[in-house]
Amino acid sequence: MGLEMRKTCSIGLCQVLAALLLWWSAVLILCGGVNGQGSWETVVKNAGISTMHAAVTHFGNVVLLDRTNIGDSQLPLPPGVCRNNQQDRANKYDCTAHSALYSPGSNKIRPLFVQTDTWCSSGQFDGSGKLVQTGGDAEGVRKIRTYWPCADDGDCNWEETTTNLQVGRWYASNQQLPDGTQIVVGGRNAFTVEYVPANGRGQFDLQLLKDTNDAQNDNLYPFVHLLPDNNLFIFANRDSILYNWQDNYVVRKYPTIPGEPRNYPSAGSSVMLPLTATGGFKACEILVCGGAAPGSFSNPGRLAPASDTCGRMDPFAKDANWTMETMPQRRTMGDMILTPLGDVIIINGATKGSQGWGYASDPALTPVLYYPGAKSGERFQTLTGTDIPRMYHSTANLLPDGRILVAGSNTHQFYTFTGQFPTELRIEAFSPPYLGGTRPGLVVPGEMGYGEEFSGSVNYNGNLVWVDLSMASAPFVTHSYAMVIFALIVSYISVSWFGLVLFFFFRSFVLMVFVFRCRVRGC
User: Fold this and answer.
1) Which residue from 403, 393, 275 is spatially nearest to 345, judged by alpha carbons?
2) Which residue, of 61, 83, 258, 325, has the greatest Cβ tally within 10 A?
3) CA torsion angle for 283, 289, 295, 301 (degrees, to 10)?
């Protein structure tokens, strides 16, 4: 059957996305899918680099980024291209790549050139689709780098700007803002926030970062979410605040989450659950899962059991507090992904220890699916596991076709291919349970602009139940945290039976249309 849709793109947080519809693909969701627990595929046997950071561009390809001061990688730069950096502590003249572009359609890898050290850096796309990447270590600690995405056959590459950060930032977090800038929060021994571009603004002290700076610095890579009221939810260690970024003051403080430290190096993760049309895009909840036992990083030989809890809170509630839930498996270094259906997949990590070189054991090989709308006690489903450990310095990103790209894992200071957890250069794709079947047809004529009405036609040889029109961000993923991850469930159109998922890519966001939720979930 065919279905025509018309919609105006002008909702709440959409103000931060750019104008053009640039890329799309369609994925069918059937009841139960091909495998009720999902399936794995190794899509690249040797990427040449281990992925510490990753981001999906509006062309659907994926920027992979490691650190530069690690010595030679296994991915050569083009002939005649070498990095001459006398400040590099491992290799001052290096003809190998430490960043790459992965193309999901062909599974090909193209080396990218990055000059200064990006170790444990941060980043995010701006409204034009440009990837803005900040900080790192050593000579890269104050650098601002940019990457203008291009198609698979393009030659785009990293560029370093002539403007630096106001202070060195290592293990900081970035959040895109509606005014077109990014706020950069924290970093090791950096208890401030700043803006990129600064536009005349200086640094602003953030007391939360000072208050949560324990003996092992459990306030790094703070979780930052832009809420519907245009304030920021900022979480560090176990504490959190509501922050007015326009006037730089704390609006309110929230109760301490029970349990273990949740940020680097204890490595929990966090998402803001999808905003929905039924809630007027104003109601929201924060979900924080996993972490490490107190002191695990300071005493790595102990290999203490990781956290097995998640905390969930409505930041707008008058008496806001954390509601705790127990995961099926303990997990530190888990990545949290918002799925096309508005659920959460927790993937990667370990069940003992913390982040750090050799500081963890007992890899968490099985992903977990979390259903936010299910009854308490019925929200978790264990999915099919992999046989490749993805521990320290791993990534997980949602692809336009609905798969989750999983890369990286290097628990060593340098590339090490021997021992219990060798440096991992393979890339996998995990197909969650919602994937399977034959792809439907999709036609969206012309381009899509902010605030403009658009129409699209869906054709599928079967009956449809409903259409959900949704949008999800394309985050910058590193160290178990997806920076600027959120989703909007925009509309609901009732049709008839079967179903599908349709993805549209904006420059910095993914616009997704969904038709069918799995029958086992009560549709």
Assistant:
1) 403
2) 61
3) -160
* DSSP string for 377-435: TS-EEE-PPPSS---TTEEEEE-TTS-EEEEE---SSS---SSSS-----EEEEE-TT-
pLDDT tier at 162, thresholds 50, 70, 90 = very high
Q: What token pair was written down for 379?
A: 């929200």
Question: For the chain, what is the radius of gyration of the CA atoms?
Answer: 21
Q: Is 112 helix (H, G, I), strand (E, B) or coil?
A: strand
- Distance separating alpha carbons of residues 182 and 159, to the nearest angstrom: 18
Q: State yes or no: pLDDT of 374 exceeds 80.
A: yes
Phi, psi of 159 (to 5 degrees): -130, 145
> Could you tell me which residues come within 8 angstroms of residue 490 by beta carbon, excluding any fewer than 6 positions away?
7, 11, 277, 468, 469, 470, 471
State the pTM of this model.
0.90
Residue 217 has pLDDT above 90, yes or no: yes
Q: What does the alpha-carbon distance between residue 473 and residue 511 come to, in Å, rounded to a whole number?
A: 8
Mean pLDDT, all residues of the chain: 86
Model confidence over 108-135: pLDDT tens digits? 999 999 999 999 999 999 988 999 999 9
**Rounded to whole angstroms, how far apart are CA atoms 520 and 33?**
11
Residue type, 345: I
Beta bridge partners of 305: 352
Residue 235 DSSP class: E
Residue type, 270: S
Handedness of CA 165, 166, 170, 176 (dihedral sign): negative
Neighbours of 246 (CB within 10 A): 11
Backbone angles phi, psi at 262, to 5 degrees: -120, -15
Q: Write the Ramachandran bin of 36: left for phi over 0, alpha for psi from -120 to 50, otherwise beta.
A: alpha
- pLDDT at res. 335: 98
Cβ neighbours, 10 Å, residue 98: 32
Helices (H), 320-391: none
Which structure tokens are listed for 141?
């600690």
Q: In Å, how far are 59, 116, 136, 192, 509 from 67, measured between CA atoms? A: 24, 9, 8, 24, 26
Token couple for 255? 């109760």
Count CB atoms within 10 A of the CB of residue 509.
Answer: 27
State how far the Cα of 82 lies from the Cα of 114, in Å rounded to an integer.
10
